[in-house]
Design brief:
20 helices, Rossmann fold, alpha/beta, 6-stranded parallel beta sheet, 37% helix
Length: 561
């Protein structure tokens, strides 16, 4: 078993510090070795689906692989949603699944399924180790080599999840004290800087200078002050509008366009916004209007800048993949001539952005009806500096993106937009809160919150977690989008009406609970919501479904340029 015990040692020597474990028998050697290692913090989470997302949230903060450990059988399958999310959102995870010996697979033995490669194409690679009872020197070398390779692969660009399947033969509970080898093999990964060379920069600058209408779109991205600075300077010097959703974390850019969803969906002449050249960086964008616009009004060229040699052709016009560090690229690519202080294309975007922002602020600061959008507006308005926000998919992220009028520079936004599912939102935020001292706010709908109630099923209570549940009794988004909103099956099979409140669930956890039903109650609650506490706080804001739909449509009609 020494080779197995050394897995924890190698992880620690390579800087990994967190492991999320789910109870089970077959994984006992892994569990004990990680729990006893002095440099690794371990957390026990009974529900593997929640455990996977909690690990994802931890890796969001640490930027290092969190180790996931579970027993054999269906346990590992429950990691799948979180693994798929990590793969598409480029978050590193190291998944260790305990397995039965190969000869017992498909032999009607308990907790035995075909585990090798069970995550398919949603991991960067899947390894299968031999049985650990063979202590031949080559077996130890193979174990140590694979663990090093897996960690390095999880961290190499683009980062992501890596799976190692490990079979165990009984007995597997350690009967004696054990130690960790001092001479474990360590293979270091030296990261590429991806610096663009001067010849490349000059050639691209000359080419870019030929296009008067340059548009920059930044997709989902971790908060990076250096990239904010580089894009801000690039946008200003080239007179190129910079568009970004709230989860791109570009709010530190002083000339950022955040109102593109309104600009591109309000009867404006889209032809005048069509770029000659589009430059993108980051991952996916939220705005359906933006995607539709760029697929319809195609630029002559589309350059994607990133460290990878691959890029998705999201807007169906990709012409160049520039494999370079975006910070270096946008910092070093200078115009070959001085840009005009006033540029019609740049100014039009800026003016409309200002007008829509002003219209939204005016709407909420006047006597507007109490609505879900206002809840999100007030939350974003009252967020503490240097805090984190997790936005649930469906309506919460759309509300936040539509009313992104605040410029707090030290607030970072997260959303599971890799697969855009509603599962695991609470668990992801929970994991993040366990790994940071910053305040973590979750804005989530009732269905997503109910779906992930097992996030509370553990012994940990992060005092810096604040959860806001918008409970309108169903999935209101289906009442708002074209298609399901006109079907007779809408209410039962799409909106999925429900009457559950989270009050009793929260009471069971010992968290602080607030029930909100009107604007005065919301404003009173916000006065103390972010005060220091020994426990997490949950605010449940109640709305009636048809009222929610009416208020959202009224808001959209009121916001005009």
């Amino acid at each position: 078993m020494q080779s197995v015990y050394n897995i924890a040692q190698i992880c620690a020597l390579k800087g990994l510090r967190n492991a999320v474990l789910s109870p089970g028998s077959r994984c006992a050697p892994l569990t004990v070795s990680f729990v006893r290692h002095p440099q690794i913090s371990t957390y026990t989470i009974s529900d593997e689906r929640s455990a996977g997302f909690i690990a994802l949230g931890m890796s969001d903060i640490t930027k290092l692989p969190t180790v996931l450990i579970c027993t054999s059988g269906s346990a590992g399958l429950n990691y799948s949603p979180a693994i798929a999310e990590a793969y598409y959102r480029q978050v590193p995870l190291l998944i260790l699944t305990a397995d039965r010996p190969a000869e017992w697979i498909d032999q009607a033995d308990g907790q035995t399924i075909r585990q090798a490669g069970m995550y398919g194409a949603h991991v960067k690679k899947s390894y299968s180790l031999p049985l650990s009872d063979d202590e031949h020197v080559d077996n130890r070398w193979y174990y140590e080599r694979v663990i090093n390779e897996a960690i390095n692969l999880a961290l190499s660009f683009p980062p992501g999840p890596v799976h190692i399947n490990i079979p165990f033969r009984e007995p597997f509970y350690p009967k004696h004290e054990f130690g960790y080898s001092e001479d474990c093999k360590i293979i270091d990964l030296i990261h590429n800087t991806y610096e663009p060379n001067q010849h490349m920069l000059q050639s691209l600058s000359d080419e870019l200078s030929q296009y008067p209408k340059i548009l920059i779109v930044c997709g989902q991205h971790s908060y990076n002050p250096s990239l904010n600075d580089a894009l801000n300077i690039f946008s200003h010097s080239w007179r190129a509008p910079l568009l970004a959703d709230i989860i791109a974390n570009m709010n530190a850019c002083s000339h950022l366009i955040t109102m593109h969803d309104w600009i591109l969906n309000d009867g404006n002449d889209l032809n005048k916004f069509t770029p000659d050249i589009l430059i993108t960086c980051g991952q996916s964008v939220i705005s359906k209007n933006l995607k539709k616009f760029l697929r319809t009004c195609k630029p002559h060229q589309h350059w994607h800048v990133g460290k990878s040699t691959e890029a998705p052709d999201t807007f169906q016009s990709l012409s160049k993949i520039i494999s370079a560090d975006p910070v270096s690229f946008f910092s070093l690519l200078k115009p070959t001539h001085k840009a005009a202080e006033s540029h019609p294309y740049y100014e039009e975007w800026q003016q409309l952005n200002f007008l829509y922002k002003t219209s939204i602020e005016r709407y909420f600061e006047q006597e507007s009806p109490f609505s879900e959008a206002e809840v999100v507006y007030r939350l974003l308005q009252n967020l503490p500096e240097h805090s984190l926000v997790y936005l649930s998919n469906s309506m919460p992220v759309r509300y936040a993106n539509a009313i992104n009028v605040f410029t707090k520079k030290n607030v970072e936004y997260f959303c599971n937009r890799g697969t855009s599912g509603i599962d695991g939102v609470l668990s992801t935020a929970y994991g993040a809160a366990l790994k940071t001292d910053k305040m973590v706010t979750v804005i989530i709908g009732d269905l997503a919150a109910i779906y992930d109630r097992n996030a509370f099923w553990n012994q940990y209570q992060p005092p810096n977690l604040r959860i806001v549940v918008i409970n309108n009794g169903g999935g209101i988004i289906f009442s708002l989008i074209d298609g399901p909103s006109t079907l007779p099956e809408l209410e039962e099979y799409f909106v999925t009406r429900q009457t559950i409140s989270l009050k009793n669930t929260i009471k069971d956890t010992g968290m602080e609970y607030m029930s909100i039903k009107d604007k005065p109650a919301l404003m009173r609650a916000l006065n103390s919501f972010y005060e220091n506490s020994y426990v997490s706080k949950v605010m449940e804001v109640h709305f009636e479904t048809t009222q929610s739909k009416k208020h959202w449509q009224s808001f959209k009609q009121s916001v005009k340029r």
